[in-house]
Amino acid sequence: MSVDINRELAYKILLDMEREDSFSNLAVKKYLDKANRDDGISPDLIRRLVYGVMENRIYIDYYLDRIISKGLSGTKDKALTILRLGAYQLEEMNSVPDYAAINTSVELAKKHCKGLDSFVNGVLRNWQRKKKDIPLPDPNKDLVDYLQVKYSCHPSIVNLLLKQRGQDECQSILKAFKTRKNPTVRVNTSKADANEISGSLKDYGIEVQEGTLSSRILKVKGKELNLVDTEEFKSGKISIQSEESCWIADMCEAKPGMRVLDVCAAPGGKTTALGETMGNQGEIIACDLYPHRLNLIKENANRLGLTIIQTKALDATKEFLLKDEGFHLVLVDAPCSGLGVIRNKPEIKLSAPDMDAIEKIQKAIIRNASNNVARDGKLVYSTCTINKDENQEMVKGFLQEHPDFKLEYEKELLPHENGRDGFYIAILRRTN
């Protein structure tokens, strides 16, 4: 029996993530970009396997640790990765027969960890027989331990959500973290309209729905298709962006002719969305700490035909002033814990974020960025987290120290409401 190519690629991606501590979306992209699509590659299946294992890893490890006689600590990373992949299929993928989940895992073991195929076979068969008799932690004795195992989420994140949201909403959010979202595209309204793009995508066999937060967003699902290979993407008529991220750009209400500063801009989704809103008239300076990430912004701007975007390498945690007259709009899409986008990056929930370090960076960036806002200009602060300390409390603290700014608008989106990712925005106005 030959090794299944899709499971082998999923195994390689998961092992790469384990060893290199890489992000799931980047690891998946790296391997799919190199894969030969003529070999029977199914990107959707590979993504489901990778994201499925990551979404359920703490839960899977809890049971494997009790099924393996020597526990997880004595299991090498190659065998453990194969076991996680097999256990996920046994537990969550009803479309895969149990024998297929086990047999494909054994074949992977024969190829990638010789001599351990019998071990893999035995553990997965014991999963079939014994797993149902192993109870979850008792929620009445330790609620955090129960929730971290059931929803595969680091206890520090569980504790944070319990403290800020209460038990019922915490569980709703944790449950939402394990759901998947369909991709969305942003229509470049300077080159096409939503109806035109919707028709073009349907011609590819893709199902299309209108966005609910942003009028220039289309939700897509159906046929396996790499959207970046479409003529619509190559010609700059569409970009791949989440609806929530596009909504942040919409709420900035950038106008033609404005001077705009995007402080933490890479890879440029919001930057280019602002440029399209401005009709490519005015000025946008897009900054990032790492010069190589600025190339992503340049590439996107060129593809979309946006000529008003300049890029600048900048450490926004240090004081800076880019224009004496200031900017009409300054966007701070701050580095954050990412707790709102865990369904897209499930590896986030597997470790404890360093909240003190993150909040220190955020405070420095919003303070330094505010010095660049012109009188009567806007400072927009946004994150993709649902941690109130990074959001509402961060803005409250800033306003206490900067009486020349007033809060005009504030809103959070939560992962368990309307199937959205968790985002936060605050719009502040600089007074005279």
Could you explain the architecture of this structure?
This protein is an alpha/beta fold. It has 17 helices and eleven strands. The chain has helices at 5-20, 24-34, 43-55, 57-67, 77-92, 98-112, 117-130, 143-150, 155-165, 167-177, 194-203, 231-234, 243-252, 269-277, 291-304, 355-370, 392-401; strands at 184-187, 206-210, 217-222, 238-240, 259-262, 283-288, 309-313, 327-333, 373-383, 405-413, 423-430. The strands form two sheets. Strands 7-6-5-8-9-11-10 form a seven-stranded mixed β-sheet, sandwiched between helices. Helix 14 (269-277) links the parallel strand 5 (259-262) and strand 6 (283-288). The longest helix has 16 residues, at 5-20. 42% of the residues are buried.
